[in-house]
Prior knowledge:
It is a single chain. The chain has 470 residues and is an all-beta fold. The chain folds into four domains: 8-177, no CATH class; 181-261, CATH 2.40.50.140; 275-346, CATH 2.40.50.140; 360-441, CATH 2.40.50.140. The protein contains one helix and 32 strands. It has one helix spanning 358-361; strands spanning 8-12, 29-39, 46-57, 63-76, 83-86, 90-93, 95-105, 108-111, 117-120, 129-140, 145-153, 158-160, 165-167, 170-173, 180-194, 197-202, 209-221, 226-228, 239-247, 252-261, 275-284, 288-296, 304-308, 313-316, 327-334, 339-346, 364-374, 377-386, 398-402, 407-408, 421-428, 434-441. Strand 16 and strand 17 form a beta hairpin. The protein is globular, with a radius of gyration of 22 Å.
Amino acid sequence: MNMKPLIMLPLAAALVACGGNTDTLSATEGTVSVLITDNLTQSYSEVWVNVQSITTFDANGQAVVLYEDASGQTHNLSQLVNVGALVDAQQIPAGAYTDFEIVLANEIRLVDAAGAVTTASFDQSGNPTFTVNVTGSLQVDAGQNSSLALDFDLAQFTYDAATNTVAPVVVQKDPATLNQTMATMPGQVSAINGPDQFVITPADGGPDVTVQLHVNATVTDPATGSVTTDTSGLGLGQNVSVSGVYDAGTLTITASDVQIEAAPAGGSGPVVVRDEVEGIVTAFDGASLSLDIKEASFMPDSNEITLDVANAMFSRGALDMLAAGQEVEIKGAWDGSSFSVVLVEIEGAPRNAVVGGSYVDDYAEVEGVIAGVAGDVVTLTVAEFEHLNGVSLAVGQTLDIDMANSWLKDGDASCLVAGAELEVKGAFDANGTMLATVIEIDSGCGSYHDDSDDDHDDHDDSYDDDSDDS
């Protein structure tokens, strides 16, 4: 069976390379971010793979490991619609490199629209890994930052039902075609430059990365239960996990979320936050929720998971705000069969620091078409809405959206023009203006790009991330 072509879905992974682990580039080194991308078939709403290493070769034919992790990193490629997911950044010797080897875990999981999971392999060798060879080239200049993009072209993947194997195709791609690169990076605070900026030394090595807090960012400490909007809760040497948009050219993350990883009061041990899972709530009974998994740091056994959130901390929103249809990000620990929840974020909900009063009651999700834009205010003609409590809306009415503190998940401000279709999540103020937290652009601008080997521009809207996401 030939897997049908879909739009380009990028997954970005920055290089982990031999040849240096210092913060200052030498005269013979350059910093590289390698991006892997993909192209998804409509036959499956989810495609899960585990990337374990990426290797290239210098002018002398010597192998240079760009990224390597024995446990690998698991990604659902279908969630990365022209958006990257950063693995790491590292310095390598300047020079010309050719060809690439990608080592994958010899397992791929496909989830169809009905939620049925097919677990296949890349070959029948029985080996735990499978190597994909890619023809291409990379130029690394001394003292410069550069990127490499490797495209998992699922339009050319083939699935053999008789052997239950998938034959992958990966090609090099121009990284300039990616809209943005999302990052979730653990590290240690090495400098605090001000209330909205600090520097981390990545846990996996590589040059220091500057973290710029987005105006809508949260800094959460699960040990104390505190949520702040600036660097006041951070200290030098503190271990943190940063999520946001990564700029490979400047080695900067514009963060939407920062999580402090520290021992709780009383010294009873570290807060266990090793894994994360994102998806759509399908049911909630007041204590436990069922989640349709769309992203995870582990390979899920099924398409849905039940999570006990009764005692969880919320960085955005609150327990009584949870409802079916919401997109949530949950952090905690996966033991191979169950997930222990520590922290919950309801996408688009108010920050925990400002939860209270009407902001909890008036949390809303609204879809519509832009009727006009004036500064930070977008006037939307309402087409659909849900999760409203105490707010009256009608299809066809116009609604003012204050986007001053919003996070654009796809594209940029240039996409916000009359006629554009938006999905907005946020809360209402006393004047009836919706204060947007997250804006998704559904009309195409920034959501995907046309590829020469794509047959169409369809976008699977079943779930759009962020990692980071956010």
